[in-house]
Every structure is written in structure tokens, then in C-alpha cells.
Amino acid sequence: MNKFFAALLTLYLVITASFFMLRALPGSPFDEDRALAPEIIANLEAKYGLDKSVQEQYWAYVQGLSHGDLGPSLKYPNRDVQDILWDAVPVSLSLGAWALLLSIVLGIVAGILAAVYPRRWYGKLPAFLASLSMSVPSFIFAAILVSVFGLWLKLVPVALWEGAEYMILPVITLAIAPTAYITRITRSSMLDTLAQEHIKVALAKGLTNMQVILRHGLRNSLLPIITVVGPLAAILVTGSFVVEHIYALPGMGKYFVTAFINRDYFLVSGVVLIFGLILLVANTIVELFLPVFDPRLRR
């Protein structure tokens, strides 16, 4: 229960900080509309409550949140923030979830190979690729994937979100960096585990190398991997901005960028709220699963 209230307090602080930082920016959301007369801009500000003091705007916003109202969009007429996010969130969540699953599977396998066979080429290759992947920006990999598999070989579509085949390139692009990160964590954890005495005892008992690696090595190496899954899940969703923009995906990244440029206060705050909620939920799930793999935490 204490963790629940702590999560609510954290979310409240995130919402409050984003609200006041947005209002601290100079100007108003309608300053770019040079063709509008000052009287019309004043009427628009009065319509959305922007003519009131920041404190009054804040309490009105908090009261709206308590009733599930995220407010109207300032740049998308006749659309509420919750309607926009209702369409955009599933795209970002699907992209992030598939990228996370792919990065966990590939990262663990590559990390095991790098730890168990450090002197073989198939052990050195994952470590080299992990270092390379963490050094190159995602948009470089996106350009390579689009050029080779989309434009040259014409195997997969390169933009939009209209079916399963449209997910392939965005998911791979988004999964490259976290795969490298998980590979390095798995390799380091496996090296520490394989150097312990109980591994030598297991080998002395006649267990095969595969049994020792999976049953004793990997199981005892999963804790640091699981610990980073929560923040990594949130990073994948928030880090999909660039990927969504490159592949023209109708996710939250598209609306966050345009909303921030246009100072769409309510839409930016809504996206920040969703991201904060995703991070808190992911970390909570990780905390619930940690005792399953480490009995010492059950106490």
C-alpha cells in the first residue's frame, strides 16, 4: 500500500512539474498565428482558460484530471487529449512491447554466447556488435534498414502502420540499442556466475555444459537483467519518438513533438502523464517478479 501511494505521489509530482515548466516558457500557444487579430487571440485564451493566473489554471487542470479529463487540444480543433491518446497509445505500446521482447531474447542469447565462448568467433561477435550498436544512433540503423530491406530488396514496407509487415523494420530499429545493452549485462552477469564455486561443483557431478549454463548459470544471472527491464520498457516507449517519426507511425511520438513545438499545453501534459504511468507500472511489475528469482528478497 505504501508503494501505491508513493507511485501516486511520484505521478502527481511529474504532472505538476510538467505543468509549471510548460507555463514558464515565454509567449502563448497562439503567438505563431500572426494572421489572427489580438481580440481573437484573447478570445481563444479565454476559451481555454489561459487568461487566468497560472495557479488558477493549475487547480482547474488538477480538478479535470480527478474526473478523467485531460483537457482539450489547442492545435487539433474539436479533439480532446484523451481521444488523441486513445488512438496513439496502442501504436507506441505495441512497438515498444515487441521491441522489448525481441531485445530480451536476442540480448540474453548473445550475452550467453559472449560469456561462455569468449575466445570463439561466435562469442566475440556478439560483444563487438553490442559495442557497435550502442555507439551508432538509431536513425543511422533505420536508414540502413530502409535502404537495404525496403528500397533495394523490397521485402518489407518502409512506412505507415497498416499491418504486421509494417512493424518489422520499426521494431528491429527500436530493439537494436536495448539488445546491445542486455547483451552486455548478461555477459557480465554470466561471467561472474560461471566463476563461482557451485558451477564447478555442478560440473564435477557430471552435468552437461548446457545444463550448467541454463540451470545454474542463467538462472542466477537473471536478477540484474530483470532489474533493468522496467526502466528499459519505459525507455523503449519514450525512445520511440525518432523511430516513429522516421517510419511515419501514428504513435505518441508524433503528437509529442508537434505538441511541444506548437505549445499544445494539454497534449504535452497528457503524453507526459502516460509516460510516467508506463514507467511506474513497469517498475512495479519488475519489483513483483524479483522475489521469484531471488528468494532472499521474499523476506
Features of the shown structure:
mainly alpha; MetI-like fold; 12 helices; 75% helix; 0% strand
Q: How would you portray this structure in words?
A:
The protein is mainly alpha-helical and 299 residues long. It has a single domain, classed as Orthogonal Bundle (MetI-like fold), CATH 1.10.3720. Helix content is 75%, strand content 0%. The chain is built from twelve helices and no strands. The protein has helices spanning 2-24, 38-47, 54-66, 81-116, 121-135, 138-152, 168-194, 197-204, 209-238, 240-246, 252-261, 265-293. Helix 1 packs antiparallel against helix 12, helix 8 crosses helix 9 (209-238) and helix 11 crosses helix 12 (265-293).
Could you give a quick summary of the protein structure above?
The protein has helices spanning 2-24, 38-47, 54-66, 81-116, 121-135, 138-152, 168-194, 197-204, 209-238, 240-246, 252-261, 265-293. It has 299 residues and is mainly α.
Strand and helix layout:
Blueprint: H1 2-24, H2 38-47, H3 54-66, H4 81-116, H5 121-135, H6 138-152, H7 168-194, H8 197-204, H9 209-238, H10 240-246, H11 252-261, H12 265-293
Helix pairs in contact: 1-12, 4-5, 4-7, 4-9, 4-12, 5-7, 6-7, 7-9, 8-9, 9-12, 10-11, 11-12
Please write the CATH class name. Mainly Alpha
Q: Tell me roughly what share of residues is in helical segments.
A: over 70%
Query: What is the end-to-end distance?
Result: 17 Å
Average pLDDT metric: 82
User: Helix count?
Assistant: 12
CATH-level-4 superfamily name: MetI-like
**Uncertain parts:** none
Number of domains: 1
**Under CATH, the topology is which?**
MetI-like fold
How many β-strands, per DSSP?
0
Major sheet: none
Helix-strand string: HHHHHHHHHHHH
Bin the strand percentage. under 5%
The class by helix and strand makeup works out as mainly alpha
Q: What is the radius of gyration?
A: 24 Å
